[in-house]
Design brief:
By secondary structure, this protein is mainly α. Among the domains are: 49 residues, no CATH class; 47 residues, no CATH class. 78% of the residues lie in helices and 0% in strands. The protein contains six helices and no strands. Helix 5 packs across helix 6. It is rod-shaped, with a radius of gyration of 58 Å.
Length: 195
Amino acid sequence: TLRNLIGSLDLEQTQTSRESINKQLRGVLDEATGPWGIRVTRVELKSIEPPPRVLAAMEQQITAERTKRATILTAEAEREAQIKKAEGAKQAAVLAASAQQEAQVLQAKGQKEALILQAEGARQAQILRAQGEAEAIQTVFSAINAGKATPELLSYKYLEMLPKIADGQASKLWMVPSDLTGALESISKGFGLGK
């Protein structure tokens, strides 16, 4: 009966299921001794000592099972590590792309604001320049009106300014008034050089 019970178990179960073997063996023995008036209340196996060949086979099987489990666990661990590495690389790539995009957006906004500020600065400079020129013209005009300039004085000042106008780097075209000869005559009369 004991051989039948142990034979139905695999090798690892025979080492770890002693309590279950005790219960099954008690049931079988109680059935067999019941007709004779004997009741088996307890069976206890103290140790199972298989033959050396079976023991060697059991050890090989246990070693193979442990090796198999270790191999499976190692493969699963490597798989998990590779998945984690891939996920980490993916997240790093996403973050790098996002950071690069954000940097480009910020750079574009900065360039836009710089261009707007430059345009506003240029506009304000033109406005101030125009206001300054307008004030200068107004001042000159007021001075001319206040001083009651004669045509001779105006002609003289015009001739005085001609070299400065010609000296300008942007001057490519000269405007000579059609009444230049009249202006020159007025000057010569003013200095008493006229005929």
